[in-house]
Amino acid sequence: NDASRNNGKASKQSLKKLSSAYEDAGKYLDSAETDEFINDLYPGTISLNNIALKYGEAGRDDKKRKLLEQAYHQSPNNATIIFNFALTLKRTESSRYKDLMEESISIAPNDPVHLYDFGCWLRNHNERQRGQDMIDQAMHIWGERLVHGRMMSWDYGWYASALESIGEYTKAKEVRSNAVKKATSEYNSENLTQIK
Fold first, then answer.
1. Residue 141 CB coordination number (10 Å)
2. CA–CA dist 158, 135 (Å, integer)
């Protein structure tokens, strides 16, 4: 209907709503394909990184890797894109994973997710002390963020998993509980905004 009212071209807003509806319904492949279609009609509207993550949720790791590599070439200094791309190579191209993680750490030296993942990898690949130092640094940063209320949404899961890996199950449960409390407290019908 929107396309028929707009000379055969659906609006960016209606397509974004469709993509969100697919995502909310757990139809990640449809959502990712819709996002790619949006970018075809309206170039640069949706981050290739975000589309890649949806393809990953849909089990399309081939598309995820291809889009992350494309995103990396477009934004070679974006630590998040570098990290996500590196993760797709971790099991198959370990030397490339290491090179990308070195780049990521040089750009974002205090990102605990990057430090923790790379630290674990280094610890298992003959750089035990350097890896442990990175893990310790990540744990310290997460601990400080938690105390000061500066956790990012993804920090909770990573920190809880890291705590579980060292046997801190009670603390991990507390961190997961804090994530639920934060998500609940952030929802307030009075604070909702319209999609533009």
1. 19
2. 12
